[in-house]
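Subject: sequence -> structure tokens, single chain

Hey, anyone have a minute? Need the predicted structure for the following. Not urgent.
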Amino acid sequence: MNQGPAFAPSRTLSAVVLAAGEGTRMRSERPKPLHRLCGRPMLLHVLHALAGLGLDRVVVVVGHGGERVVKAVAEEAPPGLPVEFVEQRVQRGTGDAVSVAMTVLDDDPEEGDVLVLPGDAPLLRTATLVQLVAVHQATEDAATLLTARMGDPTGYGRVLRGRSGGVARVVEQADATADEAAIEEVNTSVYVFRRSVVAPALRRLSPDNAQGEYYLTDVVAVLHDAGYTVGAVAVADPEEVAGVNDRVQLARVEAELRRRVNAGWLTRGVTMVDPDSTYLDVTVEVASDACIYPGTLLQGRTTVAGGAELGPNTHLADCRVGPRAVVAATVGRGADIGADAHVGPWAYLPPGSRVAPGRVTGPNFTASVAEEGTGPSGAHP
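Reply:
Had a minute. Here:
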């Protein structure tokens, strides 16, 4: 749920979201940013985290499957978030992607800031991004990195500090020496740059590295060597900055996201007999005093009223469940279940069906759309 901006930046703030990569390790025809977690495309989780920052503009850099990404964002972006798109036609690295985005931001005020973050980090919290921007704007540093300390930093760029304690450069693992690879402070690919310095720094990047790409991380060394101060904010929970590059990571990140979703409903007065075996999309709404038994999956725009009991082993998608209804071992899609109704076990509710208030269906029930009326989006008889 988008509650509107929770933070008012002290100067103009835009964001660049990098979502152009092909994601070959996903082994999928679906563009990586559109793989779903808890009912929402991965990229959309990032955009929802940005919705509380009071941003002036949000530029999403697309590439592989760009048309599909644009369509999904247009349909599901948080209301009021000022999203626009730019295409990185040839993927030549993160530095090149931000350079492409800056062509869209050419008319932004020079005194403003640009937040840059990846589109495959769906666990990022609004509060963490707010802290990063607030520290950056308070210190007046040329750039501020979001970093993390990891016991196993494999795969991440290492953060190298200068004599003054500020960030001197970031070295990617493929280019790191043995001593550099042993550093536990890592770059999370989330940055805030002063608008006036990032574009000139990007023009000084070179693809002279192991990947033959323009690394955005090299901007840090360019700024440091030019005499600018680069700061850092350490994220409290390193798991928050976990990226998704394959199906293993996708499953791991979704498990954490579902844990957050369930914890949120528990604090709002919803009973879950076993949260570890209860699965709710982020788009589902549940009233307090509802009770959900193990093996229950709620998807889409499902709404559950207070006092309802769902499960065990119930799967509802885009359904409406009335007050005090009991739904056991049932599969339903696009159905309307009235107050005090008892459905199941082993019931099937097809799209458009309706179970009248107070009705007891018994086992092995299949609702008839013609007999029961229209679903939650239509007019009830």
